[in-house]
């Protein structure tokens, strides 16, 4: 490791001010992605600004018909939270399946979203649940947040403070995971509210995306059979040492069907 400055922010405004004063500084929450990148010399920030202990940033609360989760909430707390499990069981199950126990104890919701790893789980939840990403200066709709490979709508000095998840009638998430990293080779999140169904796919392309064909099929019939009947186009999907684009295309409706089964079980 190399020398760098470490600062602990007391509030969001102070954290943002640190990044405005130093263009090479980075926010630090759980550090599960950033610290690994630093060890490999893929990132070399001059300063790390710890935002994990900002008061209120890890709170999880119900506001009307939504669950608001602080950006510094770790995966384990999201998975174990009674309000999340009761209102959005698909989100609780997703958080429980992230990494291993150590990763879940340290990794945070905001850090995962800001990093936007193409195989991360939380982006699928944000997109399928039509969540709103709340920052120190604005609110960003899920459909506008994810821009591409490790790219989001965030400005370099913009800090995620919370995410507001509307409570759906039913939700479910299933992934086919890499046995070593436990990242998703393909992960599918489904959410239904009334006649509207949203389906988000992670791990299959350069960034999380919605699957309109599955959404249309499941809006007409919210059943596993309807999901399995959809044929996904492999163009634009990833081929790597773990799976081909064709295999990922095959997996998407299979996992969508299992996600529907999970949603129907509640």
TrEMBL record:
It comes from the Bacteria. SMART domains: CO_deh_flav_C. GO terms for molecular function: FAD binding; oxidoreductase activity. The keyword Flavoprotein applies. The keyword Hydrolase does not apply. Keywords: FAD, Flavoprotein, Oxidoreductase. Residues 1-170 form the FAD-binding PCMH-type domain. SUPFAM superfamilies: CO dehydrogenase flavoprotein C-terminal domain-like (SSF55447), FAD-binding/transporter-associated domain-like (SSF56176). This is Carbon-monoxide dehydrogenase medium subunit. It comes from Cupriavidus agavae.
């Amino acid at each position: 490791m190399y020398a760098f400055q470490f600062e602990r922010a007391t509030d969001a405004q102070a954290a943002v001010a640190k990044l405005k004063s130093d263009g090479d500084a980075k926010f630090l929450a759980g550090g599960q992605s950033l610290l690994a990148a630093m060890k490999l010399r893929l990132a070399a920030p001059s300063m790390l600004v710890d935002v994990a202990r900002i008061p209120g940033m890890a709170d999880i609360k119900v506001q009307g018909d939504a669950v608001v989760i602080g950006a510094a909430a770790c995966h384990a707390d999201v998975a174990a939270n009674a309000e999340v499990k009761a209102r959005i069981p698909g989100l609780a199950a997703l958080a429980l399946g992230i990494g291993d126990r150590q990763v879940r104890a340290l990794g945070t919701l905001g850090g995962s979203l800001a990093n936007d790893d193409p195989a991360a789980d939380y982006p699928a939840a944000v997109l399928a649940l039509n969540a709103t990403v709340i920052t120190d200066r604005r609110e960003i709709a899920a459909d506008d947040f994810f821009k591409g490979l490790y790219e989001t709508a965030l400005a370099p000095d913009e800090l995620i403070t919370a995410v507001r998840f509307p409570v759906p009638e039913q939700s479910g998430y299933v992934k086919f995971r890499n046995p070593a990293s436990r990242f998703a080779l393909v992960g599918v999140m489904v959410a239904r509210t009334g006649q509207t169904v949203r389906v988000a796919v992670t791990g299959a392309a350069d960034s999380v995306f919605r699957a309109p064909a599955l959404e249309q099929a499941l809006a007409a019939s919210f059943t596993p059979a309807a999901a399995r009947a959809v044929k996904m186009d492999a163009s634009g999907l990833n081929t790597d040492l773990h799976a081909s684009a064709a295999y990922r295309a095959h997996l998407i409706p299979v996992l969508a069907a299992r996600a529907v089964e999970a949603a129907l079980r509640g």
